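Case study.
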Amino acid sequence: MKAQPGHFYAVGVGPGAPDLLTLRAARLLEACDAIVAPRSERSEASLVLAIVAEHLRDQEVLEHTYPMARDAERTRASWAEVADWVAPRLARGQCVVQITLGDPMIYSTSSYLLEALRERVSSDLLHVVPGISAMQAAAALFQEDLALQEDRLTLLPATDLEAVAEALARSETVVLYKVAGHLDALIDLLEAKGLLDQARLSFAVEQGRQQLVSDLRLARGTRLGYMSTVMIRTGRRAWA
Amino acid sequence: MKAQPGHFYAVGVGPGAPDLLTLRAARLLEACDAIVAPRSERSEASLVLAIVAEHLRDQEVLEHTYPMARDAERTRASWAEVADWVAPRLARGQCVVQITLGDPMIYSTSSYLLEALRERVSSDLLHVVPGISAMQAAAALFQEDLALQEDRLTLLPATDLEAVAEALARSETVVLYKVAGHLDALIDLLEAKGLLDQARLSFAVEQGRQQLVSDLRLARGTRLGYMSTVMIRTGRRAWA
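After joint prediction, the assembly is written out as follows.
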């Protein structure tokens, strides 16, 4: 995939380490004219811009502070503004890249920007470049399979513990995002199900200050940042 | 992550396109002394070696034909042989990389080799480098979210249709691997559940000869290769 004039690329830059960028992402960044870099309301600097720093030169950069509230209307309005910045640049024949943490199709803001852009430009001009997700980075660091043989893997937010309990009953691996604020209740649930020893907590994986916790008992009461992941292996569904 | 003498790296090379390799994978390959490249019994050439061709120079390469039968004992014996090839090279201070399609922690042979190596060398010498999975590549090409907001994503093999039906009932996105041999029965199931229009079939994504099928009705009776993926969106679990 090569950067084409007038095209837009939603590019996943991986979990945090600059060398977990794909070659495709690196080449698109180096060749493009303008970059949209999301910054959460809670952070001072754009984490994604730091990840891709070695591929930046004189590209125009829009740092866009997006709302972290779970508010569909505010979210939509915020990304419509970004699309209004991107669309005229595409019309002028510029190549625009949005960089996003992890993978653009997994709990990512790219979905909102793509939706807004589809209302403004031909969908033939829109592309998505996958990136390494935090789930994969955590599994690699713990060296724990996400799935093998006949296993089922479920990924979901930790926000609804009833859904988590359901997933635990029907998956060999469960990965939970958005654990912050739910950790102690989650530990209680895993303890009740006898699964605490098979759970692993990671925070800010591949971001230089990562933390890997193999015994969740030690994490009780911790105030986690929002980039926390818990991975639970309930068993194995091997070949018959 | 830098290639260290005496260390082993299970490296995911992504779904097929050489530019979906991560920078980390490329650098490890360029720096290492020996490479293990799995080749399935069913293919003539090693697909993974073709993906990384531009990073090869004079590294020693072990092309290892692994059994595709669902036979735990044969699988274990086969990977023990590879571990017996790797371990003495690590002891001599060489850096060894195993390349594997997709991600080493998602339905990958790396799990078997790592298990065999843990019996032979210190686990401090073993590393895993994540790679883009076929699921992510397919989602990027279809521009369909794998998960957004409160969505649940389940990944499982299509071999057990009862488990597939369960997953459909409790996930907003279901991704099925190993669809070959089960496609027509799967189409029947999706038709009965009114989900056929929300299903997407992909084959050999990012391998130069990829096929993307947005209407599964057209695929009935097709003899698929084993690198087929079906992605079904059952709905959306948005913010309250």
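Observations recorded in class. DSSP finds seven helices and ten strands in chain B. Chain B touches chain A through 62 residues (CB under 8 Å). We will return to this complex in the next lecture.
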